[in-house]
Amino acid sequence: VSGAGENETMRVRLAVLRDRLRENLAEVAGLSAIRRRRHEIGLLLADLDRQLERIGRAAVVTLVGATGSGKSTLINALAGQPIAREGIDRPTTERPVIYAPEDADLGDLLVPAGKLGASGGGSAAERGFEPLVVRHEAAGPWGREILIDAPDLNSVDARHRAIVMALADRSDVLLVVLHHQSVVEAASASFVDEFAGRRRLVLVLNRADELTEAARDELLAQVRELAATRWQAADSPVVAVSARAAQSQPHSEGWAELCTVLQALARASAIGGARRLNALGVAARLARVLRAAAAEAEPDLAALPAEIAAGFEALASRVAAEGEARLRIRRADLNGLLWAEAAKRWDGPGGLALRAGGLGSLGVVAGTALLRRSPLVAAGAAGGGISPRQVQ
Amino acid sequence: MTGALSSSLRRAQSLLAPLAERLEPARRAIDLLERDLLPRTAGGDLYLVAGIVGPNNAGKSALFNALVGRALSPSLPAGGATRRLVGAAHPSLLERLRSEPTLSRFRLRLIGEDSARPEDALRPAADPAELLVAAEPDLPSGLMLIDTPDFDGILGENRLASESLLAVADLVIAVVTRHSYQNREVVVFLQHWLDHGRPWMLVYNEAIDARVARSHAAKLAADVGTAPLASFWAAHSIAVQDGGIPLEPQVLDGDRSGALRDLLFDLGEIAKVKSRAAAAAVARLRDEIQHVAATLVAEGEQARSVLDAAAARAREAGVEIASAAMPGGPFIEAFRTILDRRSNPLSRSWRATVRQIRLRLESLPRLLRGRQPSSEPGAEGADLSAFERDALRAAWPGLWEEMARDLGRETRHRARRFAPPEIARLLDADLADERRAAALARAEAEVSARPAEIEAFRGACERLVDAAIERRGFDLDIQAAADVATIFPLALAAAVIVKTGGLGIDIAVAGGGAASAFLMEKYAHLVGTGIVAEARRSWMDLRGGQIADALVDSVLEQAAPALRLSVERETTLATELRALAGALA
Predict the structure, then answer these.
(1) What's the alpha-carbon Rg for chain A, to the nearest Å?
(2) Which residues of chain B does A222 touch, with a Cβ-Cβ cutoff of 8 Å?
(3) Residue A129 to residue A117: CA distance in whole angstroms
(4) Which of A143, A272, B22, B350 stands 20 to 30 A from B5 (CA)?
(5) How many CB atoms lie within 10 A of CB B418?
């Protein structure tokens, strides 16, 4: 009862957080710094929505890892029965295997393949994502926990990574299965980068029986180092196991530890705590994205008033310059217009010249200049300026 | 290597070197030339470079150490120890390479000399192509064996070191395990670097058994697309991981047996591999050259479309500016010239008299002041440029905005959107708002610095007038009108000058201009309408094009020369590179 109450409180809190975020983001959505990050923000908000939906449902633990890390062997060992196909040819698992309690609602874990957006879209991908569902007794060791065996995240078949992404999106806990070649592999590390902080991580170094003790310790140290520095998840459990050996001898040291970790996580209070942390992780990521956007937008916003003022000034000077240019080019026409207007009110030889129009004005110049010397020559000059129209 | 090939390679080097900084394929080609093909040609195929590559913790260093015979490259059970290129070669080969550095494909740091120690391999080198190398008398003298860091890990410098080896290696030895032979990264990386039939060997390490190893090796070879020279396998072993026993892969193919070491150290095999490697390297160079040529052609096309877009806008403005003023002098002179040419017996005597009068009248002002009242080209030019300057200023805002709209940062114009980044940068610099005034000043200077093609226009006018009079058939009246109209203003001007002495010169010049304009209309009227419009069109065409060129040069001050260079490159350099690639085939 207390678990249900706690779930309710958390649901309300998350919903409030989600709504507030939506409002705040809508206010700044126009900023280009935010627009550039729209996709990332959208993904994080969708993740928050999904987490909100999952509250109260069974915990989902997905096994993710590189090719050959032994995910199928590990889930078989956990289930105590061969539910996933193990193989020596890679990639082995195309169809995810969902190991769920009898009464669990699988909800969005059964997404149709088309919605994945996986590249290719051939029939293999469609077949591939139709998960194989194996039910277990809710009273068994895994209680209400759903375990999923996912395809390889670095397989030659690029569609597999998209499937793992989709499954990880719908999980509460990622059980990262590593082998001695995938610990520092870039493809694996970058996949975990994507989910670090927003999913509880359990890091398992599998195939420990194929390693010397020194190598195992060194690799475990490398995993812890990655968890602490790269993923900021120093509290994630790190265990070395041999899933293959565990199928025959379930009480080996690392194996018992892993089972304890997983069963502890499956408890309602524990999974509630993990989900709270996951939601906080999403919020922290959002905050990081928004902080970056704010840092980027800040100088722009600070410069805005000056920019606007400068813009207005430039506009005003441009309008003035343009007006002046137009005036200059039309000056001749305006002159003519003035002359014509003046001519209407002025008779005599000067008036005659004025009526002759633009060309006549030159005659007038000559006429007025000569008038001072000899009226006779002035008349001749005025005659020279008679307009072509009158000649014609 | 033949002399022809060697000269083709040198030619490729000289053509590609100036492009290397800008074009990635040119950089790769130069790298290939300078570090691989040219040293190879110079040294007459002195030695074979065999490089061991693979994903992290696959056993590369264990294999290298087993081949060399001692723990030279750091190899730890947890992997990741080797952080740079580590090599081994026969002392005589190293001595030769050190005395003739041009033969070496790497910058060598010899262990024991150069203050280099084996532990340096645990730290990355500043230059990924630097090779930490040890002299090993047990190796064949024609072999340089090199170990690399991983190429799939989270450390970027490891990948760079791997790639700098692969850029020049003759033989690639790829080490994978049953966990990594289907990793996307591994397959894509090998596909890329084993292209063009470069010889390679596959070592499948940590196998369960030979049968599984064979099927997995076949799958990887099929994914990579080139069959390996040979495949090898080694079983998973804690003792090998621990360094207790050496990693000695065995031949996986059915018809052969033996260890990797035997095949690799076999001198006959080395010679065979060398010639295949040389052919693959030349093929790779050919592809890169074709790639560069294709890039240049694409750039040239983009540059041309940017220039076309700019020219279209500038032409509109140029025609508008040219239409502001048309010089009347050449038009009138065209009439005179044509009429003089078309003289007949009747008109000849009359016209001779008239010309006498005209010449005497024309010489009057010259006698007085040494100045000419009629429309001489200089005066014409001065009037023109004043008109054109005003028209240019009026047209400028529109031109600038259209250019900025079509070629600026926010454009949707195809030409600009697909322009190469440095062209885009130049366009942005040219079309920056603060350059607007400077560009106008430059345009004014450019337009007035390019004198109107008066002579060409005169020719065009003469052709027009000739054709029009020919069509009309009868020209006596025009001749008479022309003569009267020519003499009348001149006589007038002369009278003014004679009467007024000095003062009248300016008035006479003004009167001459007025008379010219009048005559233009008169002649045009006599031969029929349309001729002025045609003359105007031909003027706008001639001068408009000239102004448009000046406008493009001044608006796109930096971009225009770069664009023209790019267009030129497309035709010259790209063609030559293609021919060169053909010669390498």
Answers:
(1) 41
(2) 78, 80
(3) 12
(4) B22
(5) 15
- CA-nearest residue to A90 within chain B is B182
Residues of chain A contacting B510 with CB distance shorter than 8 Å: 362, 365-366
pTM of the model: 0.69
Amino acid at B265: F
Contacts of B324 in chain A (CB under 8 A): 329
Distance CA B320, CA B544 (A): 7
ipTM entry? 0.71
Say if the Cβ atoms of A322 and B77 lie within 8 Å. no
Closest to A219 (Cβ–Cβ): which among B78, B150, B219?
Answer: B78
- Measured CA distances, A300 to A185, A284, A296, A312 (Å): 40, 25, 8, 17
Nearest CB to B80 within list A91, A155, A184: A184
Token pair of A240, please? 């070395």
Full pLDDT tens readout for chain B, 585 residues:
467 888 888 889 998 988 888 888 899 899 888 888 888 777 666 788 999 999 999 999 999 999 999 889 988 877 788 999 999 999 999 998 888 887 888 889 999 887 888 888 888 988 888 999 999 999 998 899 999 999 998 888 999 999 999 988 999 999 999 888 989 999 999 999 998 889 999 999 999 888 999 999 999 999 999 899 899 999 988 888 877 888 989 988 766 667 888 888 887 778 888 888 888 889 989 999 999 999 888 888 888 888 888 888 888 888 888 877 777 667 777 777 777 676 665 566 666 776 777 676 666 555 554 444 344 444 444 556 777 888 888 888 888 888 888 887 777 677 777 777 778 888 888 888 888 888 888 888 888 777 777 778 888 888 887 777 777 766 666 666 666 666 666 666 667 666 665 555 556 656 666 666 666 666 666 666 577 778 888 888 888 888 888 888 888 888 888 888 888 887 888 888 988 888 887
DSSP state of A107: G
Q: Distance from A71 to chain B by nearest Cα, in Å?
A: 12
